[in-house]
Amino acid sequence: MFKRILREERYVGMTERDGNYFPAIIASEVFCETRSRFKAFVPTERDVLLVAIKKKCSFIDPDRRLQISEKYNAGGIVKYISVAGNSRFRISREEILRQVTRAMRMEKRICKSVLERFKTPEPEEILKTMEDTYHLQAKSLFEFSVEAQKDNHRNYRRFRKGKMSERDYLEYHETMLQEIKEISDEFSVLLSRLNYRRTQFKEENDWIQRFLNVDEESLTPEIVKEVIDSIVLREDGKVDIYLNTKGKEVFPKTWTTLLGGKHGKKK
Question: Which domain holds residue 140?
Fold first, then answer.
C-alpha cells in the first residue's frame, strides 16, 4: 500500500479531469524524492528463463493450482513455486532449474556413450536384424493380401455358377476390399517406421543432436521449449523432469538406460 501511495502523484493533492479531488496525504517534496529512487522493473534474462521453466511445471494432482509466491528479504525477492491449498509444498524456481540442468547433463552423457557405440560393429548388426524383422512382417502382410484375393476369386466363380447369391458375393467383396485396404495401410505404416529407424539410427539422430548441441549451463527460454517436455512436481517435494527424447526410442534400452534417475518422455 505504501509503495502505491509513493508512486501515484494524485496523493500529493490534485483534482482529476473527472472532478474527483484527492487530498494531500504526502508532501510533494517527499513524493518527488522517493519516486526518483524507484526503478522500473526490467526482468533479467534469468527471470525470463525461470518464467519459461515455470510454464512447463504441473503438479501430480491436476486439481491443484500452481502459483508463484514471493518472500522479501535483505537480498531482494526469492521466488518459489507453491501449490494452492498445500502450505507444506514450496520449491524455489532456482532448485527446479538446477534439476533441469542435471537432467540435461545426464542425457547428454548418454548421447555421447551412444556415439561411442557407433564406432563398434554392433549398430550395423542391430540395423540388419531390425530390417530382417521388418521384411518378414512385410512378407506376412503380402501373403494375407494374396489369400484375401484368392478367396474373393473363388467366391466369384461360385457366384457365376449360381452357387452363391449376388448379394452374398457383393457383401463378401466389400469385406475383402476393406481387408485389402487395412493391409495396405498397415504396410505403409510398416515401411514408414522402417525408413524412420534407418534415418535415426545414425549420428545425425534428432535426440543425439538435440542434447549434444545444447549448453545446459547457459539455458534460454528457446532451449527450454525445445528440450523440456514437462516438469512434474510431486507431493513429497521431488521433481520429475521429462525431456523431449524423440529419436531415442530407435536405440536398444541397454544403450540408453539412465543411471541415477529416470528422465525422458516422447514429445
Answer: 122-200
Q: Is 56 within 8 Å of 99 (Cβ atoms)?
A: no
Predicted confidence at residue 86, as pLDDT, reads 63
C-beta of residue 11 within 8 angstroms of C-beta of residue 5: yes
Together in a domain, 109 and 240: yes
pTM over 0.70: no
Which conformational region is residue 14 in: left (phi greater than 0), alpha (psi within -120 to 50 degrees), or beta?
beta
Q: According to the model, what pLDDT value does residue 18 have?
A: 53
When divided into structural domains, the chain yields a total of 3
Tell me, yes or no, whether 193 and 127 share the same domain.
yes
Which of 200, 232, 251 represents a domain boundary (last residue)?
200
Please write the tens of the pLDDT for every residue from 116-171.
999 999 999 999 998 999 999 999 999 989 998 899 899 999 989 999 999 999 99
In angstroms, the CA 36 to CA 190 distance is: 69
Beta strands 239-243 and 228-233, pairing class: antiparallel
Is residue 209 assigned to a domain? no
Angle in degrees, CA 188, 191, 194, rounded to 5: 150
DSSP β-ladder status, 14-15 and 21-22: antiparallel
Name the stretches of the chain with pLDDT < 50: 1, 72-76, 260-262, 264-267
Whether residue 227 sits in one domain with residue 97: yes
Indicate whether 73 belongs to any domain: yes
Residue reference for cell 532451449: 223
Q: How far apart are CA 204 and CA 189, in angstroms?
A: 23
Q: Is residue 207 part of a domain?
A: no
219-242 burial, b if ≥16 CB within 10 A, otherwise e? beeebbeebbbebebeeeeebbbb
* DSSP 8-state code for residue 265: B
